[in-house]
Amino acid sequence: MNFIDELRWRGMLHDMTPGTEEQLQKEMTAGYIGFDPTAASLHIGNLATIMLLVHLQRAGHKPFALVGGATGMIGDPSGRSTERDYLSEETLRRNQEGIRAQLARFLNFDSGDNAAEMVNNYDWFKGITFLEFLREAGQHITVNYMVAKDSVKKRLETGLSFMEFSYQLLQGYDFYWLYKNKGVRLQMGGSDQWGNITTGTELIRRKAGGGTEHSEEHLAYALTTPLITKADGTKFGKSAGGNVWLDPAMTSPYQFYQFWLNATDADCPRLIRVFTLLSQEEIEELERQHAEAPHLRILQKAIAQDVTIRVHSQAGYDLAVKASEVLFGKVTLETLRSIQADEFDVIFEGVPQTMVTDEELAGCKDITDLLSVASKGEVYASKGEARRAITQNAVSLNKTKVSDPAASLDLEWLQGRYILVSKGKKNHLLKKV
Q1: In which residue ranges of the chain is CATH 3.10.290.10 found?
Q2: What whole-number distance in Å separates Cα of residue 280 and Cα of residue 286?
Q3: Where is L-tyrosine annotated to bind (predicted)?
Q4: CA 88, CA 417: separation in Å to the nearest integer?
Q5: pLDDT in tens, 91-121
């Protein structure tokens, strides 16, 4: 597998420094991407750059994932119009551990010579004093060079602290340290990182290349991937609730699966190339099938399956599919009975839920009372509204239609405590306590 050719057909190659392709064809090359621990989890925006490391390793090269324990204390100004809020060291450490665990799911850390490695830039910055850093890095990069970077120029009008201004120098030193101590020759990232990455290649050229101003020798290389946007030009990776995270505690497997399932047809050709490991032939066949029957959402289902399994495991994917069938499909009472007790809260996360006590149940004489009085008006605001919905054949209990407003409460509580109320296409869960 040729790494650059793979990126080209997938639409994942934005820019690279001269000689990068030749270097990658010549020998196994170590490359890295940095991830700042500004949140407890990575999100699907990060997943696009993680896939660069995945493809790099699949092509026989050695990937390094850098967790920015030091640079995370400052924050990258790239793509921002204001200075970010700064996190405590305790929060940063907690975030670092979460990100380490997530990255370990994508890369092979036991594959011999090209086994992935994870590093933390705090390990080398913690022993460097400010004066030492100025001598090590500051003397080799001019202010003129740093100010010319887009990430800096765009912030000069609104204000840029010296701390954020220094970020590119810190990232550049990361690259130099990895080049010198780990033999890393390539840094990759999103296209907005080009300025920071090339600061690293310049620092390496000046320090490791003897400081020659016009050296023809390429010691280090840069490569970027396009930022992912939707077909309409808007930012990709957000849902109604904000970022789509890789941590199941922050975005459940069901919500994660649904995000990909809801992608537009116009976005799918790009998404399936960037985020899945399907081959070019497999993708083109799926696109042919999708064009013949777009209502089946073949591309969306293929993307959702591939990415959800790799992020959340086969079990997570299976549960997400089951949740989708329960909430939106034509499932039966038998399907509901098959849901295990520990799956209920996962499947019905986000579905309105009402607690019903034994005392409240004792005060109900029929189904109408259950859906109005016992539910405290949260399912139906009044007895009259509940009665009308039932007589109009708009209510199901546990996926079974209810037609008699005066029907008795001889109901099956799933797992002894749940009843799923379906109001047309909307669901509401009653929980007995």
Answers
A1: 348-432
A2: 10
A3: 32, 167, 171
A4: 43
A5: 778 888 888 888 888 999 998 999 999 998 8
Cβ-based neighbours of 323, under 8 Å, separated by 6 or more: 254, 257, 346, 347, 348
d(CA 279, CA 398): 42
Q: Which CATH superfamily is domain 348-432 in?
A: RNA-binding S4 domain (3.10.290.10)
3-state helix, strand, coil in the chain (%, to 5): 50, 15, 35
Considering only the top CATH level, what class is 238-329? Answer: mainly alpha
Q: What is the full DSSP assignment across 357-410?
A: -HHHHHT--SHHHIIIIITTTSS-SSHHHHHHHHHTT-EEETTEE---TT--S-
Detail the residues annotated as belonging to a binding site for ATP. 238
Nearest to 343 by CA among 361, 329, 325: 325
Q: What global pTM score does this model have? A: 0.82
Residues annotated within the binding site are 32, 167, 171, 238
- Residue-wise pLDDT for 196-228, tens only, equals 899 889 889 888 875 555 455 679 999 999 999
Scored b (16 or more CB within 10 A) or e, 251-267 reads bbbbbbbbbbbebeeeb
Residues of the chain with CATH 1.10.240.10: 238-329
d(CA 368, CA 375): 10
400 bridge partner residues: 397
30-35 and 62-67 as β-strands: parallel, antiparallel, unpaired? parallel
Which one, of 150, 131, 137, lies nearest residue 202 by Cα? 137
Q: What is the CATH number of domain 3-225?
A: 3.40.50.620
Structure tokens at 281: 């032939």
User: Start-end ranges of CATH 3.40.50.620 in the chain?
Assistant: 3-225
